[in-house]
Write a structure and sequence with these properties.
FAD/NAD(P)-binding domain, globular, 3 domains, Enolase-like, domain 1, five-stranded antiparallel β-sheet, 461 residues, seven-stranded mixed β-sheet, 24% strand
Length: 461
Amino acid sequence: MIKYDFAVIGGGSAGFNAARVATELGLKTAVIDGTKKLGGLCILRGCMPSKTLLYIAEILHHAKHAHRFGLKIPKATADMKAVHARKLSIISDFASHRRKQLKSGKFDLIPHQARFLDPHTVELNNGEKLRAKYFLIGTGSKVSMPPVPGLAEANCWTSDDVLDLDFLPKSVIVLGGGIVACELAQFLNRMGSKVTLIQRSPNILRDHSEDASSVIQKAFVDEGIELFAGTNLKSVARDPKGFKVSFIHDGKLITRRAAHCLNALGRQPNTSALKLDHAGVKTLADGKILINRWQQTSAPNIYAAGDCSGPHEIVHVAIQQGELAARHAANASKIKPVDYNLLLNVVFTDPQLATIGRLEHDLKTSGVKYITASYPFNDHGKSILMEANYGYVKVIAEPNRGRILGAEIVGKDAGELIHCFSGPLAMRATVFDMLRAPWYHPTLAEIITYPLEELAEMIER
């Protein structure tokens, strides 16, 4: 039986970075990953392929609407096989690099599945057993299957299938209104598919503010996506002609048909095969692992990080969590829990939606006093000349000194602009600190100064 100080189950962003740090701190470390393709969800079936395709769709969208800029482009269409080849090439480069890192020899890579026998022992699917003083679970997530009549039997596409397309679907029904659903719905629509998006909650992107989601929703409808929010899904069926989805909307039973259907109704932790009960690891009903601020589970020698434990399914957070777990297991000095007051989130629709720090809903719930100011993109010089008129910048600050508490940006390149707040927020800077910095004209980033100036006037008064 092989023995380790620290064994990681899952070689994705959380697991790999935990193993890297554990090794650097002198722990004898192993990564257990029995997936057919090494690399993790982000590289293979998440961030990198989706953002590659979204950027391609954005270029095509601008080409199709070149007349807005006084340009004549007679015809712009997608060569889906070439698009698919470009995506595969990009993924291959990233995945190849990650495989080299995993096989570097700095830690042992064990290409098998694992399940717990007790808190210190796992059994591999080749029959061997492995013991470790500490474990970290970083097995990610998988597509969930809500109890909608006919959904499981219909065999709808998942995000994996859409990201692997080498042809243009004639029509697609997208079930769901979260980040994956919205990003892929807009991708398919811009590439040329007829898209119907059906969301159960009153607004798409329900984890964000109603103001933010309404901007994205308007942009989708303006681009030609047929969008239904606040629905009650009744059934999903498949026949030789394609898919049929029935739902209640505004008190009426509505049916839509399409050649294809994408199930983007959410994801759930990929933990069901681990036999966590054998190790005394407690989970919620959906399989999400319960953790404390040091990433420890109910079994103190077993940690969890990333999508399988949450509370946020974001790559850079998973990395922070994995590294923290490794440092805690190694008894490193001066470690601190992940600070979720600095949480950064981006939705890569167009317009993009990005947030950082503490937002209005959280502050209201917590009873924290704050002031806020916003400014629209359709009144800003650089965004107007770019035909980027959707959205706004909103800044949230403490009312007495003006310390920045958070920000929300919906608009062109919001995912880039939001980083203007990363340093100031981490350094506990104020509105006045940010206004002392130079802001070049004309730039998109300059729009941030307008709500900052309004907040400064409010505080000075």
